[in-house]
Amino acid sequence: MSNLQSGVAATGTGVRSRPRAVLPALCLTQITSWGIVYYAFPVLNPAIAADTGWSTGATTAAFSAALVVSAIAGIYVGRVLDHRGPRLVMTTGSVLGALSLLLIAAAPNPAVFFAGWLLAGTAMAATFYQPAFAALTRWWAPDHVRALTIVTLAGGLASTVFAPLTAILADRMSWRATYTVLAGILAVLTVPAHALALKAPWPPAPPSPPHVNGGHEQVVRSRAFWMLAVTFTLSAFAMYAVVIGIVPLLIERGYTTTQAAWVLGLGGAGQTLGRTLYATLARRLGVTARTVTLIALGALTTAALAAVAGPYALLVAVSVLAGVIRGNLTLLQATAITDRWGTTHYGRLSGLLGAPAHAAAALAPFAGAILAGPLGGYPALFALLAGLAVTAAVTALGARTHHPEGEVTISVGVS
Question: Which of 60, 199, 207, 387 is the most buried (most CB within 10 A)?
Fold first, then answer.
């Protein structure tokens, strides 16, 4: 066992009673929150533009603004999580999420629609993976990778469940009615789950590992932290532009919205499959090699989507493979802090590390929609995104820490 591993284990973070209801509750709420607040939008956006006359660029900009708000709010949320735990944050976020969707559904003009998405951005920061990961890292460490894997396995089903469900609802009712129904589902499933399941006492933070002498300030100033931030920012831009762009890519190639929604949804199933493989990958590769490999493979699948126009079954297969890579990237980012710098300031550091990546993810849908036209269509956009992911794989080489044990801490708890 490495020194860092020993340091983490010695904190006693793994020797505590873990609240039993937390894991199943977070599995349920991650599926629901991601599926409704995030994945419903790419399915409904064509209907929103067609019904209202608002441009696709304008509606996508509102969605992107929500993700920018989520990135900024995530820094504050991380600090609150470190000190107070996830219950108040995630319960409030669920309430705000349901209210935001009702506001979006009732929006009479673009300004109100935009305001609804800004509120949704705050809800995202308080309910998506960041607070869930902080909760599991504190309650489950040093066995947190197992818990993170279980939750992300469930979260990977969000698009599989809710993209087709959203399409089915939209075939039978207006987009406004669809969002109203989804808001009700979100409130019923997530508000009580967060309020009741996350009420266990919040344990104190463990000491910092021996090699982190200056606290979180030293980590934030380090070259490894900033190179890792650049890597995740470039990767996030490429990944989220692909997720949001896959529906218009297939529609541009002559497929129906329902067919495109199934490709998106089955990509979510691929995410679930990919996350089952992460522990094995983590045992075999150090954190830097793992980072470079996964991002490079993501670039390869994006290039394949750019090049392959059919048949439909082949597009489904490529989407599933891309989902496998995305699933691993989610766990890679969830463990990036603990792999290198321990769990002491996980909420704060993950908020800071994730802020530029979340901002890039926010800009990706809008930028993708804007760039697709001048580039000549979505296939050319996907080719550009593949090149961006290759650049991210290169910058990952500069994110090595000076402490060699930081390269292997992932092995704790994944045997």
Answer: 60
* Short-list 162, 155, 128, 50, CA closest to 362: 128
Q: ∠ at Cα 153 (63, 194), nearest 5°? A: 65
Q: How far apart are CA 406 and CA 409, in angstroms?
A: 6
- Closest among 269, 37, 263 to 153, alpha carbons compared: 269
Residue given tokens 């599991």 in the structure block: 136
The whole-model pTM stands at 0.73
Mapping DSSP to helix (H, G, I), strand (E, B) and coil, where does residue 37 land? helix
Question: Where in 53-151 does DSSP place strands (E)?
Answer: none
Nearest to 346 by CA among 59, 114, 82, 111: 82
Express each pLDDT in 360-374 by its tens digit.
877 887 788 888 889
Rg over alpha carbons for the chain, rounded to the nearest Å, is 20
Residue 82: closest CA among 342, 318, 404, 356: 342
**Burial of 171 per CB tally in 10 Å (0-12, 13-18, 19+):** exposed
**At a CB cut-off of 8 Å and minimum separation 6, what does 123 contact?**
33, 37, 93, 94, 96, 97, 100
Q: What is the DSSP letter of 209?
A: P
For residue 204 the two structure tokens come to: 């104190």
Average pLDDT along the chain:
84
35 CB-near residues (< 8 Å, 6+ apart): 157, 158, 159, 161, 162, 163, 165
Average pLDDT rounded to a whole number, residues 288-302: 92
- Rounded distance between C-alpha atoms, residue 156 and residue 134, angstroms: 18
Over the stretch 57-115, which tens digit does the pLDDT of each residue have? 899 889 988 988 998 998 889 888 888 889 999 999 999 999 999 999 999 999 999 99
